[in-house]
Amino acid sequence: MFRQVAVGSAAIIAALAMALPAHAQEWRPTRPVDLIVPSGAGGGHDNNARLLGAVMEKYAGQPINIINQPAGGGVVAYREMRDAELDGHTIGQVSVSIVSDQFRIEGVDYNKDSYGYIGQISADQNVLVVAANGPYGEMDVNQFIEAAKAEPQAVAFGVSGNWTNHDYTRYQIEQATGAQFLRVPIKGGAQIVLSLLSGDVQAGALYPSEIKAQVDAGELKPLAHNGSEPLAAWPDVPSFTSLGLEVNLAIWRALVIPKDTPEDIRKGWERILEQAMNDPALKEGYANAGIGYAYRNATDTVELVNEAETAYRTISEAAGVRKESQ
Amino acid sequence: MDFASNIALGMSVAITPWNIFYCFVGVTLGTLIGILPGIGPLATMAMLLPATYALEPTSALIMLAGIYYGAQYGGSTSAILLRLPGESSAVVATLDGYAMAQKGKAGVALAIAAIGSLIAGTLGTFVLAAFAPALAKLAITFGAAEYFALMVVGLVAAIVLSSGPILKSLGMLMLGLLFGLVGADINSGIDRFTFGIPELSGGVSFVVVALGLFGITEILSNLEAREKRILVSAKIGRLMPRWSELRQVMPAILRGSGLGSLLGILPGGGVTMAAFASYTMEKRVAADPDRFGKGAPEGLAGPESANNAAAQTSFIPLLTLGIPSNGIMAMMMSAMLIHNVQPGPQIITGAPTLFWGLVASMWIGNLILVILNLPMIGMWVRLLLVPYRLLFPAILLFCCIGLYSVQNNTTDIYLAVICAAIGYVFYKLRCDPVPFLLAFIIGPMLEENFRRATLLSRGDFGALLTRPLTASLLLLAVALLVLAILPKIRRTRKVAFQED
Predict the structure, then answer these.
(1) Residue A66 phi, psi dihedral angles, 5° rounding
(2) Domain range holding A237?
(3) Mean pLDDT over each residue of chain A, to the nearest integer
């Protein structure tokens, strides 16, 4: 019985395929796929890839293996994605780093033009936070900025290394408001949270997933964020844009393939990604993991990437980022 | 009540079938390598570190911890039966344990060691569960300056408590610090000592150093020695000790547990130290110290309990401060980092299932070990017959697979080979690589905290000395170093470590 149905539907599909040649040529992977992730296991990048990979398998019809390549802060992974085979069986997950790295890391030989784009898969905001029981715990964002302006360098601002995403946000806040912070490099968001709690630093610009536990426990207070949409976890927290401040370099992640991959393969992946991004299971997984849901098709993603490159170029040149790291 | 609910939470995590399975795998492997002389827990954990990549963080830590205290049990088994300490902390067990076996009481000796270890393990776990949350609450108020001072104390303690001449330890420590400098500088983002190799800008991977220095080097050094086949000559005999025998050793077990718990918490402390200290103490409190070395059950029960209690409590500095106190804890820390779990005061509140699950699993693991070790002792002893020519190639193969899998990168394999060559030189020069390993993992944190502390004090070094806790910790570090160099202490230290 089952067999007959299967044979029957195969026949129908075959007939349809002849009638609609465009669909007949829809490309799909024919063997297991490698998805390269420029970070180690655990953490935002990896969680994102694992959630997405599991859902995409359904539509790709092949297993998707997550390949973690944290070496060189992602530089090795980004090169590998660029130089992969053109048969569509190696795809990569990138972040805004593919446009910002060239402005901040010596010897980076990739940029936005090194890749073909499948689509945007997520977005995360930086949230300006202060310790709830610290000197600024009672203030709103305007009062905090006034206090910071009144005493330059008095507010120690934790960033995860100079000219990381946290630090670009710090720079944008300074430029937009005229405040001056003491920049304190601290390895990783979790450690910045600890430094906020111990009172070593007074402010930071962290991702929602990094601060969720402490904000919920009332230990940290979110003041404002740099996204364009309200925060899923704290919809009352204002965006800098709504306050008339140009602090808007939120991060995004996207899927890419090597630039010269044949167009039908790229389109095949775009279709698979679109189906996966519309799957309720994925949205639920993102919400549980604290990953900001955001999807754009390939054309819109290219636009996003171009805008980001212009923004990072302008800011990096104005701030003298390259000069500082030489 | 809080305490009870925390333990209940831990039990609910630890008693899932998978976690029991990984706990079982861990303690079985630990017993195995504890029995086999030559391969220590440090090397085994280094080899298994990459393999835990695919596991849940909690399961991975449960398994690795199981290897650690499993090795304590296994080490005593071969020490008692063969006078071969499978593991450095079991050296003391060769004294009275082997003497008991010679008198035909091998079974009783094994049982006393196991019962003492179980009681000590239980007590140690309770100390961990009771004190860690309080210490973590305190640690959350520590700033960069306090952490810097704590790390200095940790490193100095690593020198003072390591075996061999102070100068050698100091040298190893400095080399470790230098190795830790490789990679992008956190403050400026500029690469240091990477020779233009992008794979190095994240620093030399801990797995690479640990596998090279401990795993591969251990195999190399074993290859030099002619393989000896040892057969158990002593009859194992009756297993269950008599009531009178138990009554005789119980005070020693409790003293050893207390002393071990205390020594385990101290920076630089660890199981070997605890075992030696307990033996000295038992000898001192005994009415007739002459029996020691000739099969005194207290001389076995005390140290065996002490090393197991210390094995449990040495987790406290790592889980509450994020500072590893010995090589094994450095390995555990790296396992946590691989899984993106940041060891430190926030673990207990931020990841309660991981923390309490790990704590509860230690107690379960100790129980499994008693069951595993007593009735099945004959099987373990037979394992000594597996020829190394089969064992070593298999281990090397797994090392390579593991090295590749962490970053999906061949560079790490080449780097590990270089580290193995360096490790072999250390071995030939009789330099203990543990201070190197500790400095390698603590060094970057030390630098980061020092630079942050001075940045926050706006460049004023004096600020380090005006904070009371920082000042007293730094003073303690200086005092420790001075004491260690004093001639009298130097002699005592030489005696304490002569068995190593």
Answers:
(1) -85, 120
(2) 127-243
(3) 87
